[in-house]
Known about the structure:
With about 200 residues, the protein is of the alpha+beta class. The chain is built from five helices and 14 strands.
Amino acid sequence: KALNKDQKGLITGINVLGQASTTAAFTESDLEVAQKTKNVKVIAPLNLVTGLPKYNDREYNDAVIIGTSQGLPQILSQEIEFGRFFDQAESDKKVAIIGAGVAEQLFGENVPLSKSFNIRGHEFIVYGVFERFKNASISQGIDFNNAIFIPHSTAKSISGGTSQFYELLVKADKVENVDSVSADLEKRIASNRAGQEDFTI
Length: 201
């Protein structure tokens, strides 16, 4: 499909084959290798956190909790409608940016900024609300309108110290470098995984 000018240079994702296998998940070492790849502009790792968000006496069963980095909005070319995304200095804080569906279904309002809610016994504060995603199923069929985005370092800490990513979203510095970046990522990540090409780009 056609990309707008902000999406050019986007490698839609590096995906683990066989999602059910935790042994195939990307590690922090894979992420570091990808970040050091030439002509990569920004990377946003994605990992799923099990848990049910709770606000007062309300729960939202359809919510998906995703650990990621501050580069996500830039990669998605998606506006924060209310509030803001977390920055590098807040990468270990218990803060959250939510989809419009979470705002409506969990909080019962469109702008629940600064509201506190609970995930796995930890209190999080809403920093921002994404503009409604028109193409909701951007990553692995997950509806980002129903997603709660938290820093991946925080996701690691509330998940018992483990951090495995199901996908790395990558943006090249220039559209003409996408092919070379893709090839370099494939070689470097495979090498880091002992030659195992158990992933797709």
